[in-house]
Amino acid sequence: MFLQLLINGLIAGSIYALISSGFSIIYTTNKFVHFAHGSTATVAAYFLYWTFSGLGIPIYITFPLTIFVAALFGFLIHLVIYLPLKKRKTSSVILLIASIGIMIFCDNLMQLLFGANVKILSIFPHGRGIEFLGAYITPIQIAILIIVLILFVGLWTFSKYSRLGKIMRAVADNPELAKTTGINSVRIQHWSFVIGSAIAGLAGILIALEHNIEPSMGTHLMIQGFTAAVIGGVTSLPGSIVGAYVLGLVENFGIWWLPSGYKSAIAFVLLLAFLLVRPQGIFGINKGARE
Amino acid sequence: MLSAYLIHIAIIIVIYAILAVSLNVAVGYTGLLNLGHIAFFGIGAYASAILTKNDVPYTLALCASGIMASLFGWLLAKITAKLKGDYLALATLGFGFVVYAVMLNWTKLTRGPLGIPGIQKPNIFGWQITGAGSYLIFASVIALFIVLIIYRIVHSRYGKLLEAVRDDAIGAQALGKNIYHLKVQSMMISAFFAGIAGSLYAHYISYIDPSTFFLSDIIIIFTIVIVGGLASLRGSIIAAIIIIALPELLRFIDIPSSMIGPMRQMIYAVILILILMFRPRGIFGRIDLD
Fold this sequence. Notes:
Strand order of the largest sheet of chain B: 1-2
Oligomer: heterodimer
Largest sheet of chain B: 2 strands, antiparallel
Number of helices of chain B: 12
Strand order of the largest sheet of chain A: 1-2
Distance between the termini of chain B: 45 Å
Number of domains of chain B: 1
Distance between the termini of chain A: 42 Å
Shape of chain B: globular
């Protein structure tokens, strides 16, 4: 039982980490809460469903295409909605409300186009899990754990050593100072939306494979992704990933005592607790985070 | 048939006008960005429904629904006292979600997803309201009272204090005003009237379930407040009429009824985003949201 919950927690954590890391990349350079980030994953999942199950395009084309579409989707949202708002010097709260509007628009658009019922993507048969010390794990779940691990090593190297990664951290750390050294911060913000949304696209694919697809999943993903980011420290990429695993484990061990319906509420209770006690998260630096 | 439909829309408008006006007290006048207002609406609805199911007289249940919601308002203001901006918005959103999850899962009290059916029509000191027409009159009278009370509050010296909390908290503090108490009181007032609106809703629809009080429905109330303008009661009332009535036009277009729900939400989302982009102060707004 313990091992099973541990495995479930790690898999849930991996998926949350895919949302929270992208969210964190967007947040650090843009300094506002992009709540529609979960919807990017929903749009990606439905795009995959449409191209694979609807049009019958093989997976080696649809998978990269889905990630591309997710990146494009994030870029367009930033270009069409957030950028004009930012040009008017609107506060981050307005951007947050706008992003909730976008999220509700996307979720309902997906419901309108594909129906409210749950969609199942049958690319790989779900099959019986492999038994491992009394716990079950399916091949897809193993794949998720490995893919996510590779991605994070890649992300870490990117942010630490690549030019763009360094510039992004510079903009995150001090946008004004970055500007004076000739960095085009709008271009960097575009890039963080593209990269963050591409990761959300990957999350959409993996969720479509592991769970089912439904219109409201973006909202739930965002609650968990955001909570994970706050737990770890929104401005810290490794922090947001650690936070995701903490949340995945707490949720899965939590339903030992609580009815499973409370699963999403656990995330919010944890969120409230962290906002009150340690708003900068585990790894964040306190720069007046409550402001 | 048409008149019955119009009366229904009018009652819904009245209820949402109360919700918007009460939210405006917190968001517009005091600057507390509360995204969990729908939770107070839900708490009021459930409190009133459960009490009348247990043979509590309606008038008492109506008051209790406001008081219950107000108590939760106190709790929310207490927990989020030190948060500002984004963090306050998200913590209140979280509060709304936790309340929703409790409604859904505390099946002994709320019957969970099954909801509470057969909520009786109000009986006020022997006057039994049955028809929708008389309910409209009843709800309108209550709404009128609420708007009057809130109007008195926000235009009083006390209302100016609340606005001082919004505009310059440190300045008000320097003059010896207790910012914390003012915030808590404002949230409690706001929650109280949302609870009353919840009770009005429950006894009108006669069936409530948690899905009415889900997170995404906050967008309706928020769109009304933003479209009407922050710190404008007149704006909230006019916007309530526009925002509730507008998507009803969908019924006259030939589309399947299952599509109406999502399309309504999409219309609200588009209106909200457009108004934020092109007229962030709304119709009658005096201040910017920040």
